[in-house]
């Protein structure tokens, strides 16, 4: 494994292995580092309302994600992801567990949405993704949460698992923008997305933070009940890259715009990591890649060996070596004990509080 340049205390990420994020020259923006947040430009041009209307058209029957389960969500049905006719939020809080350029000093403004279209047997957020913990709230309350996070000094709106809630999110933005919302959006997702939905987000989303989970259909079927993940995920990553390019970071080290991809390494190479990394390198090695070591057997993982044990150091190092051999310009790495410090427990007020993490199951 190559040298880790810097340990960033207080974050679960150990730093870039090599390379740096592209820095934008402030002079490009009239001498001060200002970049107009995407949805504000769309708001000013009138494009925002057209896109919102098209997102609403996909809500009921629902065709927001590749499941396209056609649930009539505005008529009382719930979809395969468990979501109905209102946004369901599990927690909204400043969050310090994302990669450093997304966190800043006051944290990412994380909104953890309930529900998920995938069925990952090892999901560390299973309390909200599968058990559907959270509260349905009216759209104006969601807008108020966005504004509260901004008032707390959060760097961005970090929308976690937003896809089933997209139309509500943009309805809430339409209420919050006239009241002064101006921080960028981070679209933090599993990377299982439809290109036509991503096209509707062009010019609305500043930063994409997707997973690239699997390199084989068999793994995607066995561990997430979605063999088509390996079909949709590369298409989605390409679309995101074409929309926003690689992550751009200002002189202050904070992200303004772009794509950063995450890959969670699984025991015994169950994710088929080399295939994932090769796929991503074919899109661009300029995409910063976060190679995650925080795997711990959560949820139903005990029934799915080899996922019934933590990751070993050698397994993680082998994937890092592949990433380095593919010449990714920027890698984020984690220490192997990251999971012990950052596994969430959504029965707590702060799911990421510094007290020791609960047992995973
Ligand atoms: S977002 Fe949920 S309701 Fe909509 S298609 Fe996907 S699984 Fe079905």
Describe the structure.
By secondary structure, the chain is of the alpha/beta class. It has a single domain (16-24, 34-335), classed as TIM Barrel (Alpha-Beta Barrel), CATH 3.20.20. It is built from eleven helices and 13 strands. The chain has helices at residues 38-45, 47-57, 126-129, 139-151, 166-176, 195-200, 217-224, 229-244, 273-283, 313-325, 338-342, and strands at residues 13-16, 22-23, 88-95, 108-113, 135-136, 157-160, 185-189, 207-210, 248-249, 255-259, 261-264, 289-292, 331-334. The strands form two sheets. Strands 2-9-10-8-7-6-4-3-5 form a nine-stranded mixed beta sheet. A four-stranded mixed beta sheet has the order 1-13-12-11, with helices on one face. A hairpin with a 5-residue loop joins strand 9 and strand 10. Helix 2 (47-57) runs antiparallel to helix 5. The longest helix has 16 residues, at 229-244. Residues 1-12, 17-33 and 355-361 have low confidence and may be disordered. Residues 62-65, 67-69, 71, 79-81, 83, 117, 163-164 line the site of iron/sulfur cluster.
């Amino acid at each position: 494994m190559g040298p880790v340049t810097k340990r960033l205390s207080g974050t679960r990420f150990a730093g870039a292995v090599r390379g740096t994020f592209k820095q934008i020259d402030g002079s490009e923006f009239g001498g001060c580092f200002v970049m107009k947040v995407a949805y504000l430009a769309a708001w000013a041009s009138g494009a925002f309302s057209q896109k919102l209307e098209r997102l609403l058209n996909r809500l009921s029957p629902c065709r927001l994600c590749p499941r396209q389960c056609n649930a009539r969500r505005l008529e009382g049905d719930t979809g395969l992801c468990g979501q109905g006719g209102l946004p369901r939020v599990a927690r909204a809080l400043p969050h310090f567990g994302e990669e450093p350029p997304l966190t800043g000093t006051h944290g990412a403004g994380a909104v953890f949405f309930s529900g998920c279209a995938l069925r990952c047997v090892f999901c560390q957020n299973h309390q909200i993704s599968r058990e559907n913990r959270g509260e349905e709230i009216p759209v104006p309350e969601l807008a108020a949460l966005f504004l509260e996070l901004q008032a707390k000094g959060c760097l961005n709106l970090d929308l976690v698992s937003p896809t089933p809630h997209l139309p509500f999110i943009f309805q809430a933005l339409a209420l919050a923008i006239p009241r002064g919302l101006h921080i960028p959006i981070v679209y933090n997702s599993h990377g299982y997305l439809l290109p036509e939905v991503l096209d509707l987000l062009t010019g609305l989303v500043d930063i994409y933070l997707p997973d690239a989970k699997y390199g084989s259909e068999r793994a995607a079927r066995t561990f997430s009940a979605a063999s088509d993940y390996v079909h949709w995920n590369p298409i989605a990553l390409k679309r995101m890259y074409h929309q926003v390019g690689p992550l751009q970071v200002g002189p202050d080290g904070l992200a303004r715009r772009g794509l950063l991809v995450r890959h969670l390494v699984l025991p015994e190479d169950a994710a088929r990591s080399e295939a994932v990394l090769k796929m991503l390198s074919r899109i661009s090695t300029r995409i910063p890649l976060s190679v995650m070591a925080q795997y711990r057997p959560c949820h139903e993982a005990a029934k799915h060996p080899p996922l019934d044990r933590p990751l070993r150091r050698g397994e993680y190092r082998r994937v890092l070596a592949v990433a380095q051999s593919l010449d990714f310009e920027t890698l984020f790495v984690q220490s192997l004990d990251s999971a012990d410090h950052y596994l969430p427990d959504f029965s707590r007020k702060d799911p990421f509080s510094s007290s020791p993490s609960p047992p995973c199951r």
